[in-house]
UniProtKB/TrEMBL annotation:
It comes from Pelomonas candidula. This is 4-O-methyl-glucuronoyl methylesterase-like domain-containing protein. Gene3D superfamilies: alpha/beta hydrolase. InterPro entries: AB_hydrolase_fold (IPR029058), GCE-like_dom (IPR054579). Pfam families: GCE_fung. Residues 1-18 form the signal peptide.
């Protein structure tokens, strides 16, 4: 009997275990608060207090806390990410063009992602998904054994200007979701691309070793894609600025100090990256029950590298430094500090990766996508002069969770 069972198991096809976008289960959270009832909080909110006010005690408390912040981010800022629909994704590969088709409720859309395979290594390769494209050291990454996939984000949700609202394939599939921001539409699309890879649409790519990256506006997208899908092993957010690595509150403070910084109030006018109702926070970010240090924290305990450019005041250089340091405390609480890196280097054009940061990208890619042992990823530095006012912005304590 026992022998027969073992034989039956052995002939099962070797299907890789599919991951899940959000692995939290059995969470009991205090309800979301309506905008009118949100209290103003000057400091960056405490990442370690759940919505009920209870302090986190164990590492195992993190998935439900993470879910709470993800819900807040979607409810107030991005728009809700549609849940995966089982059986809705199919894909075909023609040369380097991967066509992904998603069907839901009688509607169907297709998008094309372009795939470049590396010139070294052994398949299945790890892969980096570029929002639009990757602005990293791509030639080097391909030589080092990493595939690069271009995700056509503008096709999923347009971002030309403030008139781009509700345009793109996401809104063709989900017309009832108008008002959602482009960032969440892109994050949804990246998840469907990952579904297709998990289905085996790219036989030479390893669905268990995927990263996302993007620069500037597309860096904001990379952050949201990594934050909202736990199947993403490594997130590299490049010069994302306000709406990405920067904290809305600290950007408001930079602006109040006379600097030319993009704030929440400005960004909701410029483009459609955020849900239309996000404009209600435009007078100031203090009513948000979270800030972007916690959006960075949604990636924890997976790996995150934040690359910023100190020369660009508009991006909220001081704000991104402060928020990234605050966000890194989440990894510290989870005992995974060296999975989160912060690198801020100026003196170069926007989205042109300096050689010193390419070294850091390679280290994160080697350790977290290629799985190379013994690679140091302790990266925390800025060439800016940004004294961090911890008592002002982080008046909370980082717990050592059991
Ligand atoms: C840093 O990302 C944006 C920024 O938020 C915008 O204000 C500016 O117009 O464009 C940046 C960008 O995407 O540059 C390519």
């Amino acid at each position: 009997m026992r022998r027969r069972l073992l034989m039956a198991l052995a002939v099962l096809p070797a299907v890789a275990q599919a991951g899940v976008e959000d692995g939290a289960t059995g969470c009991a959270s205090a309800p979301l608060v309506a905008y009118a009832d949100l209290p103003a909080t000057a400091a960056l909110p405490d990442p370690f207090l759940s919505r009920s006010g209870a302090a986190l005690k164990r590492k195992s408390d993190w998935p439900c806390r993470r879910r709470e912040v993800s819900q807040q981010l979607q409810a107030y800022e991005l728009g809700e990410k549609p849940a995966p629909v089982p059986g809705s994704v199919s894909a075909t590969l023609d040369g380097t063009a991967l066509t992904v088709t998603v069907k839901d409720a009688g509607r169907s859309v297709s998008f094309v992602a372009n795939v470049q395979l590396p010139s070294s290594g052994t398949p299945p390769y790890p892969a980096l998904i570029g929002i639009g494209r990757s602005s990293l050291n791509n030639a080097e990454l391909l030589q080092r054994g990493v595939a690069i996939i271009n995700f056509p984000n503008d096709d999923i949700a347009q971002q030309r200007n403030g008139q781009s609202r509700n345009l793109g394939k996401f809104f063709e599939l989900y017309p009832q979701r108008e008002g959602a921001g482009a960032l969440v539409a892109w994050a949804w699309g990246v998840s469907r691309l990952i579904d297709a890879i998990e289905l085996g649409a790219l036989p030479n790519v390893d669905a268990g070793r995927l990263g996302v990256t993007g620069c500037s506006r597309n860096g904001k997208g990379a952050l949201m894609a990594g934050a909202l899908d736990e199947r993403v092993a490594l997130t590299i957010v490049q010069e994302s600025g306000s709406g990405g690595a920067a904290a809305w509150r600290v950007s408001d403070a930079q602006k109040a100090a006379g600097q030319n910084v993009q704030t929440l109030g400005q960004i909701v006018q410029e483009n459609v990256w955020f849900r239309s109702s996000f404009g209600q926070f435009g007078a100031g970010a203090a009513k948000l029950p979270y800030d972007h240090h916690q959006v960075l924290g949604l990636v924890a305990p997976r790996s995150l590298l934040v690359i910023e450019n100190t020369s660009m005041e508009w991006l909220g250089n001081q704000s991104a430094w402060t928020a990234a340091l605050a966000g890194r405390e989440v990894w510290t609480a989870l005992g995974a500090t060296d999975r989160m890196g912060i690198s801020q280097v100026g003196g170069h054009n926007h989205c042109l990766l300096p050689a010193s940061q390419a070294v850091e990208v390679n280290a994160f890619v080697d350790r977290f996508l290629k799985g190379t042992a013994g690679v140091a990823t302790d990266v925390v530095h800025t060439d800016g002069s940004f004294p961090v006012e911890r008592s002002r912005w982080m008046p909370w304590k980082t717990p050592a969770l059991d």
